[in-house]
Amino acid sequence: MLMVISPAKTLDFSGSPYPHFTQPTHIEDSQELINQLREFSVADIGQLMKISEKLSILNQQRYEDFQTPFTLDNAQQALFVFKGDVYKGIDIDNYDDEDLAFAQAHLRILSGLYGILRPLDLMQAYRLEMGTKLVNKRGKNLYEFWGNQISEQLNEELAQQVEPWLVNLASNEYFKAIAPKALNARLLNIAFKENKSGTYKVIGIHAKRARGLMVNFIIKNRIETPEPIKTFDVEGYAFNEELSTPDTWTFCRG
Predict the structure, then answer these.
(1) CA angle 1, 166, 235 (to 5 degrees)
(2) How far apart are CA 150 and CA 178, in angstroms?
(3) What distance in Å separates the CA atoms of residue 250 and residue 19, rounded to the nearest whole number?
(4) Rounded to whole angstroms, how far apart are CA atoms 138 and 141?
(5) Residue 14: predicted pLDDT
(6) Which residues of the chain have pLDDT under 70?
(7) 19 contacts 73 by C-beta, under 8 angstroms
(8) 170 near 117, Cβ under 8 Å?
(9) Which is deepest, 86, 93, 204, 227, by most CB within 10 Å?
(10) Is 123 helix (H, G, I), strand (E, B) or coil?
(11) Residue 77, SS3 per DSSP
C-alpha cells in the first residue's frame, strides 16, 4: 500500500541534517524544467505563477541556484523540508529510523518540479505548482510534461507492496498528475468532513491537516493494508460508513 500527498509552498531548510538520503528519480526532467524557467524574467515568473514581485525574485534566484548532484551540503530530504498544513499533522520531529524507513517505503509526495518524491529524496528549494500552465516541449502544462511517468513509477513500486492499493491523500490539483486507469492497483480516496449545523462538509484547512494526521497514523502504526485505516480516531475523527463508498472512505468529526 502506498500513500500519495501534495507538496507545500512553505519550505524550511534550517533543520539538522539526517544522514540517510536517496536521490529523486526524475532529476533529469527536473533539470529540463529548471533550464526553461531560467529563461524567464521576474515579471514572467510573476505572471506565470500569479505571485508577487518579491516571491518572483526569490524563485528566479532559486532556479539560478539549482545545481546537481544533490548532496547534504546543497539539499535536504523532502519530508523534512515541506512545512504546510498537511505536514503539520506529520510528527516528523519525533520519528526514529524505523518510522522514516516505513515512510520511505509507503509514502510518496507529488511535485510539479520533481514529479514524485520519496520522503528521503534530496531536494532543493523551488516553487512550481502542478497546475501551472507552463508551455513546454512536451505539451501545454505540467500534466502533459510528466505524462505517464508518475503513474509508471507508482506501478513499479506498488508491485512491491504487500497489497497493491494506492491511498489518495493528495489535493485534486496534484492527483490529476496520476492516471487512475493506468494503475495496476486498487485506488482508495480519503475524505475528511466537519459537522456544520448538522451537515458534514469538507473544510479545506481542516482537511489538509487531517491528511497529514492520517499519514502519521499509518506510519506510526505500520499499516500496510487498507482495512486498519478505518480505526483512525485522531483529533475526534471517526470512520463514517454511511458517507463512505468502497472507493472513497469518509472520516467525520463534530
Answers:
(1) 80
(2) 6
(3) 38
(4) 8
(5) 93
(6) none
(7) no
(8) no
(9) 86
(10) strand
(11) strand
